[in-house]
Design a protein that fits this description.
Layout: E1 18-21, H1 27-37, E2 41-46, E3 60-61, E4 64-65, H2 66-71, E5 75-79, H3 85-95, E6 100-103, H4 109-112, H5 117-123, E7 128-133, H6 148-155, H7 175-198, E8 202-207, H8 208-213, H9 219-226, E9 243-247, E10 253-257, H10 261-270, H11 274-277, H12 285-290, H13 292-303, H14 308-317, E11 322-324, H15 328-333, H16 335-339, E12 343-347, E13 353-357, H17 381-387, H18 392-400
Parallel strand pairs: 1-2, 1-6, 2-5, 6-7, 7-8
Antiparallel strand pairs: 3-4, 9-10, 10-11, 12-13
Helix pairs in contact: 1-7, 6-7
């Protein structure tokens, strides 16, 4: 892992797909990044000057965000002032030869620039337009500002992420934005498949709260059927037993998922509690849920006398799913991450090296790849505009006017 990888040749399944990214920060750009990882040509349009605010988020390396290096790999940067009519016209020309446009501005912003779906689809009826926002393009909340944290709360997860009786906590990543982005990518791929048949594009409307809500499993049916409002459960998974985090003698926690019927019996054998493993009342999950406190106490008493490593070794030998809680330092040194090519060492444009996440998912014949580093602001403006047919003099004029950078 000490030698940086050379830039890869594009072998992805989306070779030839042209994508315009008009978003900023997380959700829209993550969707475009995912398409770019798998071969799409992504032109990121960002404002001249400061560019995408994500450039200044998280830890800075020589003035550039390391997060930016992941979020914007495999993209070109075209710096345009979208408030200017000339810049809007450039976007329209790009739309005429593109397959996908991604934006995550507040609803109405694109329409205010004359770049709403009605106009863009009239220019290119085959265009697929992904729109990501806090609350969606319709409904009484559409005009409210909505970041991922708000979508997570409205989607239901923030009510569950806590110990009972304590303040709900946030998962320490932008979960709502990322889930919205992935739902957007699914929508784009579905629309591309349909376009093969109809020849027509369409608009994909993804709301942050809906992407989160879509992952809430049986939360709503439980309320509908039983009137049950599920509350925080700490490290346990309500209705599933046993599945929890257990404190070990070295102060670490072992995560143990013994909720399969046969797995539960093997787990009870390991902890020398065959009385529980052979109890007919605990033969399936419905019975175990009623006595989850008793079962957790038995597992916890066993784990408390062993280290995390000892617990995991015993359970691995018995084919009981279990694991440790990883820090990023654990991840960076883990041989399985390395074997799966999930820790990629790349060389930055200034010669420094940076470890970045590998490509997910893994395709056997047409895998994704890291083909170029994240661009500087407007790094590719001249090239993109020249490929559109603008002369060098026209490009110079646009730059002198502050429309392009």
């Amino acid at each position: 892992m000490n030698t940086p990888l050379p830039f890869a040749t594009n072998t992805g399944p989306l070779i030839g797909l042209k994508v315009i990214e008009l978003g900023q920060l997380i959700a829209g750009p993550f969707a475009a990044k995912t398409l770019g990882d798998f071969g799409a040509d992504v032109i990121k349009i960002e404002p001249p000057g400061l560019g995408d605010p994500l450039r200044k988020w998280r830890l800075l390396q020589d003035g550039t965000s390391v997060w930016w290096q992941v979020q914007s790999r495999n993209k070109q940067s075209l710096a345009l002032d979208l408030k200017r009519k000339e810049a809007q016209e450039i976007v329209r020309k790009l739309v005429g030869e593109s397959d996908v446009l991604i934006e995550n501005f507040r609803p109405g912003a694109m329409e205010g620039w004359g770049l709403g779906p009605d106009e863009l689809l009239s220019i290119n009826p085959r265009l697929i337009m992904l729109r990501v926002s806090g609350y969606g393009q319709t409904g009484p909340y559409r005009d409210r500002p909505g970041f991922g944290v708000v979508g997570e709360a409205m989607g239901g997860i923030r009510h569950l992420t806590a110990e009972p009786g304590r303040v709900p906590v946030r998962v320490g990543i932008s979960l709502g934005d990322t889930l919205a982005a992935l739902h957007g990518v699914i929508g784009i791929l579905l629309a591309l498949q349909e376009r093969h048949q109809s020849g027509k594009g369409q608009v994909i409307d993804v709301a942050l709260y809906e992407a989160m809500f879509n992952c809430m499993e049986s939360l709503l049916p439980e309320y509908s059927a039983f009137g049950a409002v599920r509350g925080p459960a700490g490290s346990a998974l309500p209705g599933i037993a046993p599945s929890n985090a257990y404190l070990c003698k070295d102060g670490g926690y072992a995560l143990i998922a013994g909720n399969g019927d046969s797995i539960f019996k093997r787990l009870m054998t390991v902890i020398a509690r065959n009385d529980l493993g052979n109890d007919p009342a605990l033969a399936d999950n419905s019975g175990r849920v009623l006595r989850v406190a008793e079962i957790d106490a038995a597992i916890g008493a066993w784990a408390a006398h062993l280290s995390v490593d000892e617990v995991l070794a015993a359970l691995d030998n018995a084919s009981v799913p279990a694991g440790r809680i990883y820090t990023v330092a654990d991840i960076a040194s883990d041989p399985h991450y390395q074997a799966r090519d999930m820790l990629q060492q790349v060389q930055m444009d200034d010669g420094s090296q940076l470890m970045v996440p590998g490509i997910v998912p893994k395709l056997s014949r047409t895998p994704g790849s890291h083909r170029r580093n994240a661009p500087g602001i407007g790094q590719d403006s001249d090239q993109v505009l020249a490929e559109m047919g603008l002369s060098s003099e026209q490009i110079k004029t646009l730059k002198a006017q502050g429309i392009v950078a």
